[in-house]
From TrEMBL:
Keywords: Cell membrane, Membrane, Transmembrane, Transmembrane helix. InterPro entries: AA/rel_permease1, APC_superfamily, EtNH_permease. Gene3D superfamilies: Amino acid/polyamine transporter I. It is a multi-pass membrane protein. It is found in: Cell membrane. The chain crosses the membrane at residues 12-33, 53-75, 95-114, 144-167, 196-214, 220-239, 260-281, 287-305. Its main location: membrane. It comes from the Bacteria. This is D-serine/D-alanine/glycine transporter. GO terms for cellular component: membrane. The lineage of its organism: Bacteria, Pseudomonadati, Pseudomonadota, Gammaproteobacteria, Enterobacterales. It comes from Enterobacter agglomerans. NCBIfam families: 2A0305. GO terms for biological process: transmembrane transport. Signal peptide: none annotated.
């Protein structure tokens, strides 16, 4: 949090360094594990415990949706840095495309190498699957193991740091537009939204210390929050696709720095898949889903109650369509 308060340039440089180290760690993991990789190991028992596809496999496929989405969650936070980028119309689309391609390569590589290192069922219910997968290949006392554990911390730091950068700018933008208390839109002498950064940090720390106290649907609080975050992401994807179709019809001449490729087929597929994912999430997580929509309802009631606050907020040309 301190780095983000001291300035976005310092925070961005730190984020870049730890992210590069985290990517190197994953590449090293794939390189070390690859000699022991076996496609037979990866495919064994892959269909609900069976080696052949059957109807029981569908439940496992849909239950895995939150974890598949989690691979790519929060990449949309890149847009939160648009006001602090020198040329956002060029750099933000490039950041999105390069980030998604990087994630696709790393996600597929890690999934294949970890799942094919041995009996993947031994990795199914543990919190450290990558070190355990590497242990199957190089043994417990290998120097590669120590390297993976220590450098792996940079991946955790990069993830936390990116989320801090994203949520703070989100709080700031919403507060400036009148959707959140205006005090969160205040800037420090370093021109950073320090109050928004601190608020999110306090909420995060409170969630960590509440982990063993609150239990939702048999999950710890942090596990339930991951599922709830996926609910939020899916709803955002659906709203984004609907907004895209709406704007293409109502404002066809609007200046756009980036045009969605394959319109309307690709956005249509994205919308359909998002709806399927949402239904699957609700089926497997009814309690957390109900809580999520209760929070959404509370947010809507807050929205209705704060109309005067938004009327007093400075007008944003992007929001009023100018």
């Amino acid at each position: 949090m301190t780095l983000n308060i001291l300035g976005v340039k310092l925070a961005a440089m730190f984020e870049l360094v730890v992210t590069v180290l985290a990517v190197i760690e994953l590449l090293v993991f794939m390189g070390v594990v690859s000699p022991g990789f076996s496609l037979a190991n990866f495919a064994a028992h892959g269909w609900a415990g069976s080696d052949s596809f059957g109807l029981p496999a569908f439940s496992g496929i849909f239950a895995a949706i939150p974890f598949a989405i989690w691979f790519f969650l929060a990449i949309e936070g890149a847009a939160m840095a648009a006001e602090e980028a020198k040329d956002p119309t060029r750099t933000i689309p490039r950041a999105y495309i390069s980030g998604i391609l990087t994630l696709v390569v790393l996600a597929i590589g890690v999934m294949l190498m970890a799942g094919g290192a041995g009996d993947w069922r031994k990795l199914a219910d543990i919190n450290d699957p990558l070190p355990q997968a590497m242990k199957m290949i190089v043994g417990e006392h290998s120097n590669w193991m120590h390297m993976l554990v220590w450098i792996g911390l940079f991946g955790l730091i990069a993830s936390f740091h990116g989320i801090i950068l994203g949520y703070s700018r989100q709080f700031f933008a919403l507060a400036r537009a009148g959707y959140l208390p205006p005090s969160l839109a205040k800037l420090s002498r370093f021109q950073t939204p320090h109050r928004a950064i601190i608020l999110g940090g306090v909420l995060g720390i409170a969630a960590i210390y509440s982990d063993g106290v609150i239990n939702l649907q048999g999950m710890t609080l942090t596990a339930a929050m991951i599922t709830m975050a996926v609910f939020g992401a899916i709803v955002m994807y659906i709203m984004s696709m609907l907004s895209l179709f709406k704007l293409r019809r109502s404002a066809p001449e609007m200046v756009r720095s980036f045009r969605a490729p394959g319109y309307p087929i690709v956005p249509g597929i994205a919308l359909l898949l998002s709806v399927v994912c949402l239904l699957a999430m609700l089926w497997f997580n009814p309690v957390i889903g109900a809580l999520f929509f209760a929070i959404m309802l509370a947010g809507y009631l807050y929205f209705l109650a704060t109309k005067a606050q938004r009327d007093r907020a400075p007008q944003d040309s992007m929001l009023v369509g100018e």
